[in-house]
Amino acid sequence: MKKLILLVALTIVFIGQAQVLEPVKWKTSVNKISDSEYELVATATIDKGWHLYSQSVPKDGPISTGFTFVGNKNYLKKGNTSEEVGHTIDDPIFEMEIKYFEKMADFKQRIKLKGKAPFQVKGAVEFMVCNDRRCLSPTEVELIFNVK
Fold it and tell me: Which residues form the Thiol:disulfide interchange protein DsbD N-terminal domain (predicted)?
């Protein structure tokens, strides 16, 4: 019985100290541009001290942020996903000039509707974040945009 109590206590302590780091939270929204054109917006909220890399990162650098959208009969993608200005620095770890975002970043994708019925656009974002001490493994998050 003592061994069981000790095992349970150690398990509780171990689980209590384990942390899952999720320094970036994603939110989606949709802006109507015209009757046939909409803008899908993926907003990243970034925890203090962390930074999210741009979609354009030099070769041999960190993993860039990338978006994929599942095509369907309701829309056509117009152009590439755009991003805000962000910060460009000479990164001492990667030894190159890199663009990244702090606190918050909006990524926008325009679409042209083929019909009028409400529908969802499903997609995903793959990204990597770092702070001054470490980088986390690339993460992929599913995104859903409700076009009404």
Answer: 28-140
The Cα 16–Cα 78 span in angstroms is 47
Tokens 């095992």 correspond to 7
Output the six-digit token pair for 142: 């599913």
The whole-angstrom separation of Cα 142 and Cα 138 is 14
Contact predicate 7/14, CB 8 Å = no
pTM of the model: 0.85
What are the pLDDT digits (tens) for 31-77? Answer: 999 999 999 999 999 999 999 999 999 999 999 999 999 999 999 99
Three-state DSSP class for residue 87: strand
In the block, residue with structure tokens 């599942």:
70
Write out the E strands in 1-148.
24-32, 37-46, 51-53, 66-69, 75-83, 87-91, 96-101, 104-113, 119-127, 129-130, 139-147
